[in-house]
Amino acid sequence: MIPKRADGRKLTRRGLLAAGPRAGLGLGFGSLALESLLGDGQSALAATAAARAKSVIWVFLSGGYSHVETFDPKPALNAHAGKTYDKTPFENPINSPLHRKRFRSVPAEEINVRDVYPIIYPMQVGFAPRGRSGIEISDWWPQLAGVVDELCFVRNMWTTDNDHAAENQIHTGRHRLDEPQPSLGAWASYGLGSLNEDLPRYVVLGGPTRSDTRQSIDSLYLGPQHTGVPLALDPVNPLPFGRRQAAQSARQQRDEFDLVGRLGAIAAAEHPHDAELRARIRGYELAYRMQAAVPEAVGFADETEATRRLYGLDVEATKLAGERLLAARRLVERGVRFVQVFPSPYGVWDSHQKLKENHTRLCATIDLPISGLIRDLKARGLFDETLVVFCTEFGRTPGLEQRSGGVDGRDHHPNGFTIWLAGAGVKRGHVHGATDELGYNALGDGHYVTDLHATVLHLLGLDGRKLEVPGRRRLEIDHGEPIAEILA
After folding, report:
1. What pLDDT shows up at residue 256?
2. What are the two backbone dihedrals, phi and then psi, of residue 46, each rounded to the nearest 5 degrees?
3. Helix, strand or coil for residue 155?
4. Alpha helix stretches (DSSP H) within 194-274
């Protein structure tokens, strides 16, 4: 309910901010939360049908895992290993109109354009049908195989950047040569109300992986209040400058924040359309509240030994990913809308050489923790209201990478790759889409990365096309289309 003046008239935003303590609002922090409600949520404008998901855990593996050795096995690579594409019984994928339509790569000419290496490289791991659904995944995922009937694979994803700027592209939908756009997490924050005013709507764990990938969590013109908030998994100091100084009492800090709030209110009354100022005011309020809420959320003191083992916290190889995924579960459990998890360092999946050695080790770091997350969400009754997305920026070439005398690796491959989803609103034990026999091109129309964005927003109850910002016209490809075939 909007408060009224003494004469019975409703207070305007300017009047509300200027009145401050005289309006009985404290300004202070209670009224700032009200101001946030008046000026921030877009959900009424962007709402579609009822939301299936309350929260999203977006798990991103940086560097580009090989789709053909993880979730899209291609036995034809073994049958025709060492041949060039034109010596197989299949259409040469380089000559496909799909390749020409989607190709926007930046070439490296040491041998040839980098994603069209012509000599077929065999799979470096075995594979088999898993679960009741019989979905084929490789032998590098023994734990994930145990929950495969809960997963929904999309095997016909494609993107256009063949270098690691694709890490930004999978989160923003834009090629590096185009104008940047806000990240998916920022759009989710912009479109949704908060479920917990003591925590950010959009949290980032383990990233951004370096300065030139900040776009993957940025909000740009949506305003800084919608940028992802990176948290460290240190209950003592999870957020830089997020602790009260030892020499300052709680009362002194309270008085300091109240003064900042009053000064902010005066400035806001003079500049009611200053988005950065409003974000700064909200930021002070949220920072004050987060002092207690964040350490509790990222601390594991109340977790059982069984839960710790479920995520692999007792094994050095799985501890890092396990901690971040367990923290993600704790955050969505407490009402965070979007948690973006980087379970491994920047670019480590980038297996130009020694693919078998690298992927064997790397799959073992995430296999137990990610399957543990699925099991834990189910056990806690969170699976039906939480959407899990597991992705990377592109796949790897079916052909052998030959640059620098390479003999055992694959290069970047944006033309076709696989991601999977699980939980709220998606089919279980399901495979959608395909690449060709050699794993080169995503068949049919395929799904550009913004189709994945549109699907996530749809499951959150949002219509991405209604999330337009005046003066910021988005392209048709920026919106994407929900992948209807995977919706439960």
Report:
1. 66
2. -100, 0
3. strand
4. 250-270
The string of DSSP codes covering 78-146 is HHTTTSBGGGSSS--GGGSHHHHHH-------SSS-GGG--BB---SS-EEEETTTTEEEETT-TTGGG
Give the pLDDT of residue 281: 67
d(CA 183, CA 57): 14
Q: Could you tell me the two tokens for 103?
A: 């190709």
By CB atoms closer than 10 A (0-12, 13-18, 19+), residue 110 is exposed
| Residue 249: how many other CB atoms lie within 10 Å | 10
Cα–Cα distance for residue pair 179/1, rounded to 1 Å: 40
Taken in order 110, 116, 118, 120, the sign of the CA dihedral is positive
- 481: buried, middle or exposed (CB in 10 Å: 19+, 13-18, 0-12)? middle
pLDDT of residue 287: 66
Please state, in angstroms and rounded to a whole number, the distance separating the CA atoms of residues 340 and 389. 10
Cβ proximity of 195 and 208 under 8 Å: no
What confidence score (pLDDT) does residue 8 get?
Answer: 46
Going through 144-200 in order, the beta strands assigned E by DSSP cover: 151-158
H helix runs in 227-354, sequence order: 250-270, 275-298, 305-310, 316-333
Distance CA 44, CA 389 (A): 25
The residues pairing with 154 across neighbouring beta strands, listed in sequence order, are 419, 432
Residue 48 confidence (pLDDT):
58
CA 347, 122, 68: angle at the middle one, nearest 5?
Answer: 50
Domains of the chain: 20-47+246-298 (no CATH), 50-233+303-486 (3.40.720.10)
CB 84 within 8 A of CB 415: no
Q: Rounded to whole angstroms, how far apart are CA atoms 190 and 46?
A: 10
Residues of the chain with pLDDT under 50: 1-39, 41, 43-44, 111-112
Dig out the tokens for 466 from the structure: 């209604």
d(CA 81, CA 331): 46
The runs of H, that is alpha helices, within 163-274 are: 166-172, 184-191, 250-270
Structure-block tokens of residue 50: 């009822």
Per-residue pLDDT of 243-274, as tens digits, reads: 556 666 667 666 666 776 677 677 777 777 77
Can you tell me which residue has the tokens 């926007």?
A: 104
